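Protocol step 4 of 6: structure prediction from sequence.
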Amino acid sequence: MGEHGNGGPNSGAVIKAGDGRSSGYAIDNPGLPPHRPRLTDADEKAAKRAERQVSALFLISIIGTVMFFIGYFAVGVTDGDLQMLRLQNTLLGIGVAFAMLGIGLGVVQWARALMPDHEVIEDRKPLRKEAERAEAAQTVNEIVDETQIKRRPLLRNTLIGAALLAPLPAVVVFRDLDRSEDFGVERMRHSLWEEGVRLVRDPTGTPIRASDLTVGSAVHVVPETLREVSGHGDRLAEKAKAVVLLIRMNPEDFQDVTPGREDWKYEGIIACSKVCTHVGCPVALYERHTHHLLCPCHQSTFDAAEEFKVIFGPAGRPLPQLPITVDDEGFLIARSDFTEPVGPTYWERG
């Protein structure tokens, strides 16, 4: 009884607002706090200074894009010239960073210092078909007016320049991934591996004897013939297809062998492509006790003891296995090329 009489939760009492009307809430809506004008709102000199700051950031973006193109087109990288390669990578990295950072910080500063900062509450209005066009045009005009882009040509012109140039590095990089017209599964079906090609360490090019590997070791190798490929870009493309992970296990740890693969390994030494069959990331994490290989991108996991079959993750098929043996000097060599295309499964889709 006392609870009902004192406006408890079960009393059903209606709370009165400050003006005497029923609101249903303990206090009235306080509304928005009073707007405090910024320095740039009251001082045109401060606004001009902010405009120059934003334009300077957009210019930094433009300079970054130009730096990227200088590194990409003007810096020539020859075989073995690590100094020029480092210079090119530095220009590419810093150029892209400045291009993206400049335009991003410029837009943030533009919104913070020059665009209107007052809060607006607008009730949803019912749409009237006959007024939709005029209302949409009015909305666009209001947005353009608020950006002040019409009356600040320096800001407008630098933004246009930065916005036009900033996406170009990405376009160039993606265009340069492969310039051939026959890109597809057939390009990935064949690599530099063939019968008799030695497995060598990357990047030293040192041949590997079976006796060099201990149980549990995993070695990153490439075909010895890679050094014969001319052209930096062509060499990288061939290396990407032919890169292999060489593992030595106890022979008794292997599971059932697929018929026809009985001689694909040598005294517990087995080799597979490092290119993940999900989206092509490099598989390089080997756990010797479980014989599992992990792709760091999306956690696809392969079992080396079971011919690199997928045991977890989104990969659609096992890692291609490279048949290996030894030559007369005891060096590890390939028996043949991969018997299936390396890389992501989606490349096989018609």
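Step 5 (inspection) to follow. DSSP finds nine helices and eleven strands in the chain.
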